[in-house]
Fold this protein.
Amino acid sequence: MSLINLLDLLPDELESLAESLGAPRYRGRQLAGWMYHKRVTDVLAMSDLPRPFREALTQRTTVAVPDVERCTPSRDGSRKFVLRYDDGARVQSVLMPDGERLTLCVSTQVGCGFGCAFCYTGTMGLDRNLHAGEIIGQVLAAARTLPSGQRLTHIVYMGMGEPLANYGATVKSLRLLTDPRAFGFSPRRITVSTVGLVGGIEKLAQENLRVNLAISLHATDNAIRDRLMPVNRGFAIEELLAACRRFPLPFRQRMTFEYVLLEDVNDSPAAARELARLLKGIRAKINLIPFNDWPGAPFARPPLARVLAFQNALLERGITATVRWSKGEDIGAACGQLSEAVVA
Ligand code: SAH
Ligand code: SF4
């Protein structure tokens, strides 16, 4: 019989589990307190739980935090983790300090099936989805490595995989992160990035999660976006932006549009003007990501002057646009550089 990963259960489900093991429901709340507030994952060490309950838990459940197989520090202070799950599947998570901020970038799938032409993860194909507990297990594994007193301040779903293609587990992991009885993380400090799955965006709009949404747009012209991102052949730019316009943004929150700058592909001043036009009427900010290279990539990063000219064309039109100089480039941990061989 396979063991239930307690990290896969919402607080209410932990309470029901306690009940099913003959304990009162509040034992489930205590269990959550141990795992998420005290960060104790050994059930036998949860000293205020009755011994028979702890023993029943060890028979049927586990707290499966992935192993840190490798941790590579970068010159810029970021760290890349290669994490290994029980079945041998591996993903990467990246920890990125920036002033007062400490952001963890998590993966939602082992590989990715969307095949964006500029993305190294896309070259792997999809191996499997992660469960909710495997997604939040990355947070626990990374948090364990921090010196006492240091805490994660932000979480971005921008690692390997497409969060909305693993919809149920992604949403469940977001509930676990934001539920005060579990991690209790502020939803404003969490960002989910999507390749632009219209159905998923529409479903997410109904969940009342209040997390930030980032859309990987990357082109203003359907012919170019079709070529860069095969997903565009199913959902064209207009359809995607219509779903973004309908998305209920919480007060003062803005939607992020990510735009990877590829030399001579999508980096012209005309493309910047068109981008400003397309986003009219959306409370948007733009994150420009100069292309991060990987072995055999068919693209190049534009020269600095071209990046700044693109940004200026947006700023002149009153649009907030920042350039994201990716972290961890020297260790292959920057946006779109993640790839890990999978050994089953
Ligand atoms: N699948 C999701 C989230 C993971 S990718 C998505 O596509 O949005 C996180 C961001 O990195 C996306 O905006 C993605 O387009 C971008 N990215 C991928 N490869 C890149 C590369 N080589 N250089 C710069 N950004 C890249
Ligand atoms: Fe997948 Fe996102 Fe990479 Fe596209 S950019 S292949 S959706 S991880």
